[in-house]
Structures are given as structure tokens and as C-alpha cells.
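Me: I'm a chemist; would you kindly supply a protein sequence with its C-alpha cells?

Assistant:
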Amino acid sequence: MKFLVVGGAGYIGSHMVKQLLSSGHDLVVADNFSTGYRSALRGGTLVELDIADEQALDALFAGHHFDAVFHFASFIQVGESVAEPAKYYQNNFAATLTLLQAMVRARVKNFIFSSSAAVYGDPVYVPIDEEHPKAAINPYGRSKWMVEQMLEDFDRAYGLKSVRLRYFNAAGADPEGQLGERHEPETHLLPLILQAASGRRATITVYGRDYDTPDGTCIRDYVHVVDLVAAHALAVDYLLAGGASTAFNLGNGQGFSVQQVIDTARYVTGQDISVSEAPRRAGDPPRLVADPHRANTLLGWQPQFDSLEQIVAHAWSWEQKYPWH
């Protein structure tokens, strides 16, 4: 198959490119390198463009026949989305609309979208299934939900089929050590902890120890990045086999607390990781855990790396290997 991967130089996109290439697919990778890295690309044909550029997209689609498009080209920082909502609506929503319009003109019919558990907002119940109310509490989550609703409309009007994959907490790194997480600034818990372990950061901050959880710290559902991209590969197979447009939660179905992640990192790294305490952050629910049953049954998706120790070990290998220091 021939696929277009937009945002293929980022954290999850680069793992997707590696997975698709290893399966023998023909790839074009489109990225503007606003947050991605050229060194993260493991192959494929690179086209440097912004998905907001209608002419560049039309030229790209005129030169290739794609069986499907994978979309990883979103901004992801919740705090930044609150401070700069225009940036998030422009890139995550408006630019995605431009991409979808170009797909319709080129008669490309299959779209795999990186969505987020942020579409649900504060959980009404846990674990969270796909029918849970959608009540995003920040512009990042709202931009993802707006795209999801737009995709439903594009299916009805233009026959563009989509799978929306709602990630919980992507974590870990390529087990072969070629790829890993690189965000500037870094906002995700596990790489921040490992930066404290490696000496790149003085301490890791725990925001609140008075939640209604066994150890008082927030519980989140961490899913290995390799398992995430495996779900995308299954999702495109599902669409190409005639599957209907739909959404799937991608998570382990089990949560780990902030303290458990710190304890596991101490064990894996052998380092005494310094911790500082801070009050709760506004908008942090006590538990965010996926019900991944739908992806398990409809896609046949089963996470390989579902132990926290494996996730931390792969991320630690990357943190040590990469010349950050």
C-alpha cells in the first residue's frame, strides 16, 4: 500500500513510519519540522510542507495515489492551548480541514486521525469507553473533538472514511533504541522523571498528594508508543477492508499513579530521583483510565508492552543513548 504520513517526524509519527516501512509499505512523509526532527525519519519519501498550504497539498496529491492518510501533525500542549488558543484552532482544526478538502479533491478515501482522551474532559465514570460524554475542558481537547465531528460530516457528505484513535498517555520508546520522545519543552511525566534520573533536570514535581487514590497521587493510563502505532496499522487494515468510520480508545485499561511511575523509574534506572512537592493543578482529575475493549475486539488490538517496567526501560534506554547531555 502507499500511505501519506503527515507529522511523520514527530514522536508518534516517527514510530509509525518505522512500523509501516518494516511492513513493506510505500510511504511519503510530510512534515514542516515545527516540532519534528529530520533525524527521526527512518525512510520514506520526505516532502517538507505545512498541511495549511492548499497548493502544496494539491501538488502532493497530484503526484501520488495514496490508499490512506495518517495524521500526526497536531500541537499537543494543553497549557499552551489555554494561553494561545488561536494557534491550536489554526493548526489542529483549520489546517486539518485544508488537508481533508485536498483529500476529497484527490478522491483519497481513508483517514487515520490521532485524537485524544482530552475530548472527554473530566471523567463522569472510569474506565472511560467511547460513548462517554465529550466535554473537553481546554482548547487542545476541543480542537480534537471539532476534527472528530468534522470527520463524521465528511463521511456523510463525501464518503471519506476515518478511524479516530483517542490516545490516553503515550509513553515509552522504540525497543531497538532508534527513536524516542523529544519535545521542547517537555511536558510529559515519564521523560521528565527520566531527565531527573539522568541529571538533565534537578527534580521532578508531584502536583498534589491528596487525591482519592491509593497513594494520593493522580492515576493515568500509559500505553507504549509501539502499541499505539500497531493500533494505527490495524485501523488502516480495518478501513481498507470496508470498515465503517468509528472511534477507538487506545489505553492499557489499567492505571498507574504518579508515585508508581517514580518508584518504577527509580528501580529501572538505579537512580535516586529527587522529588519536589507542589499543590494540585487545576483541571487534573484523580483518575483517567481507558476502556480499550472496543479496540481489542473490533481491531484485534492487544498491547505487547503493557507492563510499566517495560515502558520505563525502553524510555530510559533512549534517554541514556541520545546525546542530550
Q: What stands out?
A: The chain has a mean pLDDT of 96. Residues 42 and 51 are 21 Å apart (CA to CA). The radius of gyration is 19 Å.
